[in-house]
Amino acid sequence: MLELIKKYINREKAPEMLRWPVIYTLGQAMVRSNLLRFPYRATALMVEYGLEETKKVYNRRLPFVWTSAFFPTELLHALGIPIFSPEVAAALAASFGFQEHFLKEAESRWWGRDNCSFHRCAIGGLFSRYYPLPSAFCASSHLCEGAVLMFSSLARVYNRPFLLLDVPVEQDDDSLSYVTGQLWQIISSLEEITGISFQHEKLQEAVANAEGTRRVLQKINELRLHPYSPFTAKEAFNFLYLNFTGLGSRAMLRVYETLAKELEERIRENNTFKKPPRFKLLWLHLPPFYRNNILEYLEEKGARVVFEEFNHVYWGAMDASRPLESIAGRMLSHFSYGHISRRIEIIKELAAKYDVDGVIHFSHWGCRQSCGSLRIIRDSLQKEGLPFLVLDGDCVDNRNYAPGQVQTRIDGFLEMLG
Amino acid sequence: MEQTICGEAFWQRLEEAEKEFQQKKDRIAWFCSYTPVEIIASCGLHPYRFSGKEGTSFYADSFLHSSLCFFVRGCLERVLKEEEKSLEGVVLVNSCLAMSHFYYALQKYSPRSFSYLLDLPRNDSQPAREFWAQGLRKFHRALSEYRGVESTEGALWEQIYLYRENRRRLQGVYLGREDKVAVDGHEFIRLVEAFTILPPADFQEFFHTYYHDFLHKKKDLTGPRIFLTGSAMPAPLAKLIHGLGGVLVLDDLCIGRRILQFTAEPEAGEDPYSFLARQYLKREPCARMNFAGENLDKLEAMLKKYHIDGIIFFYLKFCDPWYYYGQLLKEKIKDIPVLILEGEYSSETGTGQMRTRISAFLEMIR
Ligand code: SF4
Ligand code: SF4
Hints:
The structure holds 2 protein chains of 2 kinds.
Chain A: H1 2-9, H2 21-32, H3 41-59, E1 65-67, H4 74-79, E2 83-84, H5 86-96, H6 99-108, H7 117-127, E3 136-140, H8 145-157, E4 162-165, H9 173-194, H10 200-223, H11 233-238, H12 240-245, H13 250-268, E5 279-284, H14 294-300, E6 303-308, H15 323-332, H16 340-353, E7 358-364, H17 368-371, H18 374-383, E8 388-393, H19 403-417
Parallel strand pairs in A: 1-2, 1-3, 3-4, 5-6, 5-7, 7-8
Chain B: H1 8-21, E1 27-30, H2 37-42, E2 46-49, H3 70-80, E3 89-93, H4 97-109, E4 114-118, H5 126-147, H6 153-173, H7 185-197, H8 200-215, E5 225-230, H9 236-243, E6 247-252, H10 272-282, H11 296-305, E7 310-316, H12 320-332, E8 338-343, H13 351-365
Parallel strand pairs in B: 1-2, 1-3, 3-4, 5-6, 5-7, 7-8
Residues 69, 87, 116, 118, 143-144, 146-147, 364, 367, 369-370 of chain A line the site of one iron/sulfur cluster (SF4).
């Protein structure tokens, strides 16, 4: 059914439908009535939640904000402000096949092709008015510099406030109090912009939700260690929507609790669809979101991605009685931020934990963050005897995607593995 | 067309002095104009601004990803080369992702006895200033310890005043350019370069000579009046604009005027770190700062006061901060023509095409 819908809406004027709240209501009805089928109940719950959130945004009755991928969404869930994530929207656009529409829109206005296509897509989406114009743009500076620059540019063009969370690279007490202070500042700016008053208990609730989510995510990651774990990387990548928008919400906690239960059940029933792979792999950075068969091809060749660095739970326990410090701590502890050795250590840790035979880095063009120090990563993994494959590509823009080339590289890599 | 006020001999002497200085030990290379050179100097070391090797393909390319800007790749190339072995240390700022990755690559592939990454905030709020002041304090402590010296706040104040004096002098040459202009701005950019390389006392001597000639120079330049702004750029670009008939009236570059804005007095009871933090953060911002776009609303009015005929904006390919800034500039400036140049850190490969585009632009606004 989903494929049918994708096929139908993959037409010239299809992006326009994005703006109709009724589309989302329709989608919700289809999910509820099982017209749209998903591999997990948790997936259906997540889709329903996503549709509800997007509908709120396109209804334009409530003030809402754009958030960048790593912005602390706990603040927004505490205030009850709907979130629109342009990066997630770009991934979705790519999965439905109309990213080119937005990319070309951006490129026709002199936006070149050297920056990240998640952002180019967002620029095109906003300029062509398919993406909704928010009451404020909220970005955090850690990891993704492009988002900060794009959000602040758009905020100036459209004359909307830009709220920046400036996250230092050092993880120490000075940084912690600097970030905590800014979180307070952002809350009061959001109150002013949206007219919603802040309630401390709601923030505590959001942080308690985030902590609950952290624990259940850890549990899911443990379950994925099981040789009969049916949870594939493809499914795991679908859930990333929540990681970028849902932390702090009750809904995200519920989705992951459901997922954990389902995984447990399936493992208990030994209801595995797949035989154990010949090679286990760790995936670094994101995958392409447009139609592609990389993961399937790997599977075909006996290799399976058993974990993705983006699903690693990098932050420690969050304390609802000290909500902002907890959020600040989470921001500062991202393994992919700060010295490259932090990311390398986590890669090694995950590789050992999931007992992988090799590591694949999907090098998304324009992502300075993930690609900048690839050589250092390669050298460090080589020292550990961990085979490493770099797949150059683009997560959103499929115009240079050459399946044949990718397959040749994969073939070479797997041959080397054994 | 080319007109220099001091003659080639002066510039040659300057270049020789810089070359000689580059042989010195105890040099600490810095790359970003937010680097607190005063702290380096107060520890008895020579802060030395490092510019990248010009070019488009490097041996260093295998160490830094090809989607990082040519400036950082060119810098790594130079550091990796034998001739830079004498560098004692490097100080970087997390100005942008490219710089951070450059720092990791340096540590890994060209370790020095001292290397440091400064954590520069993106805001100019009071908490940001306090955070930056604290960062400067830590940096001073780390460098003093490394050097085995007890560098006091007194020693730091001394350097602050010394550098500020030179900044003030250089700022002076930029004054009074609203109407007639007797000296093309590329000369000032060259002087600023010397200021970032030579020890303050040596620079003062050169400046003194220059200023003497400058005072007696009266001939006004004619041609389209240009404002030059953008990212790090190959040094010959400013001179090229002049060579093609433009008059560089004003620049907004971190290799030019922007680095000079440190002329305030300390407040009563202010310690040197808070003073430096305030000075560095309140100057006209680089594109990576959160408030970089604010000035754009006022820029056009300011440029009109200077009777600017055209804006030349240059950014290095793969530089996100300046790329986004350029988009905004185009959006905000309505009445003054803007030429946007995307380029490499290279005077040779880029120049042919640059030359044509700049000539056409100057022709258009003439
Ligand atoms: S891919 Fe990289 S540049 Fe693009 S949004 Fe993600 S972190 Fe930012
Ligand atoms: S030119 Fe741009 S990308 Fe390169 S170091 Fe400077 S700010 Fe960073």
